[in-house]
Amino acid sequence: MGKIFCIIGKSSTGKDTLYQRILGRHDLALRQIVSYTTRPIRAGEVDGIEYHFCTHEEKDRLLASGKVVEIRSYNTCHGIWDYFTVDDGNIDLSRYDYLVIGTIESFVKLRDYFSQDAVLPIYIEVEDGMRLQRALERERRQENPKYEELCRRFLADEKDFSEEKLKEAGITKRFCNKSLEETENAIAAYIEEQE
Q1: What is the DSSP letter of 157?
Q2: Helix, coil or strand: residue 162
Q3: What's the pLDDT tens digit per position in 170-189?
Q4: Residues pairing with 5 in the sheet
Q5: What region does 32 belong to: left with phi over 0, alpha with psi -120 to 50, or beta?
Q6: Reduced to 3 DSSP states, what percent helix, strand and coil does the chain have, rounded to the nearest 5?
Q7: pTM of the prediction?
């Protein structure tokens, strides 16, 4: 049976970069699960690669179809942004292993949907000062920086990724992202052990 490896972590821990690097490793042969979102596309993102960017109406149609596995809604400074996983026919655990980015909540819902043996967490950590610096640098590169939203997310992470929530979800294995290359190699070794 295939596995779904779920990369989890607070904002600006390097999840997206590690996701791309690990997905690109031919030795792991992981397939991508592209999540859906109603948030605006950022500079440099490509629809269907980082996310399937959709309208709230499209999200409502998918919900009505019963294909949404999990959904998270965030009341941001710019309105409601939804992130969700859809069982859109592209997940075949009888043949492949997958990689997805998520939250503790999405990991738990994926695990409950596909099975505890099939969905495994990869929790990424970075010291808070470094995370804030990375977030600020990334936001400065945007055409219309959203600093207020950056601050909201940073503060919300403390509650969303509390030690209590990590424990409740059964997430014990952690990867400290001080060096992208070292973290990538540690995650790759962990994935190989699980396959």
Answers
A1: H
A2: coil
A3: 999 999 999 999 999 999 99
A4: 99, 120
A5: beta
A6: 40, 25, 35
A7: 0.85
